[in-house]
Amino acid sequence: xxxxxxxxxxxxxxxxxxxxxxxxxxxxxxxxxxxxxxxxxxxxxxxxxxxxxxxxxxxxxxxxxxxxxxxxxxxxxxxxxxxxxxxxxxxxxxxxxxxxxxxxxxxxxxxxxxxxxxxxxxxxxxxxxxxxxxxxxxxxxxxxxxxxxxxxxxxxxxxxxxxxxxxxxxxxxxxx
Length: 176
What we know:
Blueprint: H1 4-19, E1 32-38, H2 41-46, H3 49-58, E2 61-67, H4 72-80, E3 86-91, H5 99-102, H6 107-117, E4 124-130, H7 138-149, E5 153-158, H8 160-169, E6 174-175
Parallel strand pairs: 1-2, 2-3, 3-4, 4-5, 5-6
Helix pairs in contact: 6-7
């Protein structure tokens, strides 16, 4: 049978364990970098930039790789210049949902990329979708060369064949 003294020590230790702070210092909350954020036309219609920025603040999001369809959503996030939020804007080669299937054959999309780049703040091109031999086309090559020439990273959703063709267009490309 345990002595009264050992029960007292056990009770004191248990109370200390429950009431004492866990660890010597409070654990620091981690910051989040969202590496794939779309602020597309549907989202921009439903949520104000202020609402989205508030969600980021409350969720401890410190940075985003932003792209949108059309690029208007990305522009709004960049131009908000939210304190404590690092926005890494990418040019998305889509004006509308149908462009996902045809951007790589449409010369007006390349013109869109050139025009958007003139805003002066884009760090990449994408996200775009490309699969198989579709990546061999001349507008894709021009896009890859444009990205390399302007030190832009490419964000591609692609298969292995398309990835090899993207690098074949320009071995200096940086592709995520």
